[in-house]
Amino acid sequence: MTAKGVWALDRFQAGPTGSGTAGRIEQGELLVAEQVVGFKKIKFDTMENVGAGEVDLPQQEMQTSGLWLTLRPEVLAGISPDRDALVDGLRGLAYLLHHLAPLFLMCDVRDLGSWLGDAAAARSRSRGTARPTGPDHRAHAGPRLLAAEQFEPTVYLYDSQPGGVGLTERLFELIGPLLVRARETIRACSCRSGCPSCVGPVNEVGPPRQADDGHAPRPPDRLGPPRPGP
Ligand SMILES: [Zn+2]
């Protein structure tokens, strides 16, 4: 189980999303911080979860190139007034873009990472002082992001290689076709509430919801990195 956070350090390119007005796409340099915070005990044959525990390991940080997509608040409000539902949907979008992008880039899915974070909180963190490093960052990044008042959920895709090997620069040029393919994939998928072929396995996008509404993923945890995850 890991906790993660992503912060934009520098922006090199920016533009509208494929259709023009729904949001903006930016490309630049990111800081990705990750920390292993626990472990699960899995039965070898059945993959049954038979326990878990906490570990105290140092945080790993990487500077790399990335691309991030932020939808306009009016667009989000038009989709749903429920922040949890929006976060859950965007988490599904992050999964989908992460798994479709390698088809456009001719790379492996592990060559990219993805994350749903809050751009407004991340900006306030990196403004002014040096970039987030050290014990202060470890202690405060999570609560700071969770408590963000300005709701600006942002889908990040980043290069898994430190420094980046040019994947997200290329992806910035391909974002229009990528978003079109994402929409087609969701429409074409026969599942009702998320599956590994579209927005991700149901148990990865949140606890069950009472009534399914088409492809809407399940309700999530609160937005914000770093968050313990599988
Ligand atoms: Zn599906």
Strand order of the largest sheet: 1-2-5-7-6
Rg calc: 17 Å
How many helices does DSSP assign? 6
Q: What share of residues is helical?
A: 25-40%
Sheet/helix structural class:
alpha+beta
Bound molecules: zinc ion
According to DSSP, the number of beta strands is 7
Oligomeric state, counting identical vs distinct chains: single chain
Q: Compute the average pLDDT.
A: 78
| Rough outline | globular
Strand content: 25-35%
The major β-sheet equals: 5 strands, antiparallel
How many domains comprise the coordinates? 1
Order of secondary-structure elements: EEEEEHHEHHEHH
- As residue ranges, the low-confidence spans are 127-146, 206-230
N-to-C span:
5 Å
Features:
230 residues, alpha+beta, five-stranded antiparallel beta sheet, two-stranded antiparallel ribbon, 31% helix, globular, binds zinc ion
What can you tell me about this protein's structure?
The chain is of the alpha+beta class. The chain has one domain (2-204). It contains 6 helices and 7 strands. It has helices spanning 73-79, 83-105, 119-126, 134-146, 167-173, 175-188; strands at 2-16, 23-36, 38-42, 49-54, 60-71, 112-118, 153-159. The strands form 2 sheets. Strands 1-2-5-7-6 form a 5-stranded antiparallel sheet. A two-stranded antiparallel ribbon has the order 3-4. A hairpin with a 6-residue loop joins strand 3 and strand 4 (49-54). Helix 2 packs across helix 6. The radius of gyration is 17 Å and the shape is globular. The model is unreliable at 127-146 and 206-230 (pLDDT under 50). Zinc ion binds next to loops.
